[in-house]
Amino acid sequence: MENKRLYSPSQVREVLDRHGFTFSKGLGQNFLIDGNIVRKIVKSADITKDDYVIEIGPGMGTLTEELALNAKKVIAIEIDERLRPVLAETLEPYDNVDVVYGDVLKLPLKEIIEDKCEGQSVKVVANLPYYVTTPIIGRLIEEDLPLQSISVMVQKEVADRMVAKPHTKDYGSLTLFVGFYTEPQIMMKVPKTVFMPQPKIDSSVIKLNVRKELPDTNRDSYFKLVRAAFSKRRKTLINALSTYGLLADKEAIREALKRAGIEESVRGEDLEMDDYVRLARELPNL
């Protein structure tokens, strides 16, 4: 395996056919088949020989292999038990890879990290199935795990929403959710042609650098405000909040906006994250 990297379509097909593996649409399986992209992902994630890495969805091990060559240790989490014999073959040369089988949304991630990473913080690298992108990222950043960064391949449109700016159509609750916990940056765009089977849409690799300190505000109030603001994004913020049922008293909202230094005529899509942070401090009991 050392001389036959898992890049070419013929090599991928040869390995999968040998094990009788077929792709699952239900699991959103699209395996990378481009060595240049694989190397760029690992480089953009800034993986070094000192790093412990968690990979979600290793598939047949194409990205896992590159991570193993660059990291101290890789813990690969795979939900599809049918890939056991495939990964046993493709990752056999690498003694610094530990494959854990199970659903990343249900596994005890904190315990896994404590057990397998010697108490060190970790970097997450993943080619995420489109259908569970948001739940997986949500779990990773909300659970107070010892993470340095999360570098993930996601649907291009989702990546665009994570880094969107105010006053744009992509700007919304996902932007403000991800931005509360991390500092996101799109590292590269990835064409659909580098996957097997080929998806219908292009992807992007986005890197989320986990904030060492969260914004100083009431977290529950912040997220309630964000959800309410974008539930009726064409309404003014006052009307959106009152319609959503957070505060029926428009005058109380108006006074809170004034204290936070925010114009009362604004819409939710006009406000920066810092604006929501300040307003949540003025409305801590939502």
Total of domains: 2
Uncertain stretches = none
Task: Please tell me the overall pLDDT.
Answer: 93
**How many strands, which pairing sense, and closed or not: the largest β-sheet?**
7 strands, mixed
Describe this structure in words.
By secondary structure, this protein is an alpha/beta fold. It folds into two domains: 202 residues, Vaccinia Virus protein VP39 (Rossmann fold, 3-Layer(aba) Sandwich), CATH 3.40.50; 64 residues, rRNA adenine dimethylase, C-terminal domain (Helicase, Ruva Protein, domain 3, Orthogonal Bundle). Helix content is 39%, strand content 18%. The strands form two sheets. Strands 4-3-2-5-6-9-7 form a seven-stranded mixed β-sheet, with helices on both faces. The longest helix is centred in the last third of the chain and has 13 residues.
Any key phrases for this structure?
single chain, 286 residues, alpha/beta, Rossmann fold, Helicase, Ruva Protein, domain 3, 2 domains, 7-stranded mixed β-sheet, two-stranded antiparallel ribbon, 12 helices, 9 strands, elongated
In short:
The chain is α/β, with parallel strands linked by helices and 286 residues long. The chain has helices spanning 9-18, 35-44, 62-70, 84-90, 109-116, 133-142, 156-162, 173-181, 219-231, 237-244, 250-259, 273-282, and strands at 31-32, 52-56, 73-78, 97-101, 122-127, 147-155, 182-190, 195-196, 203-210. 39% of the residues lie in helices and 18% in strands.
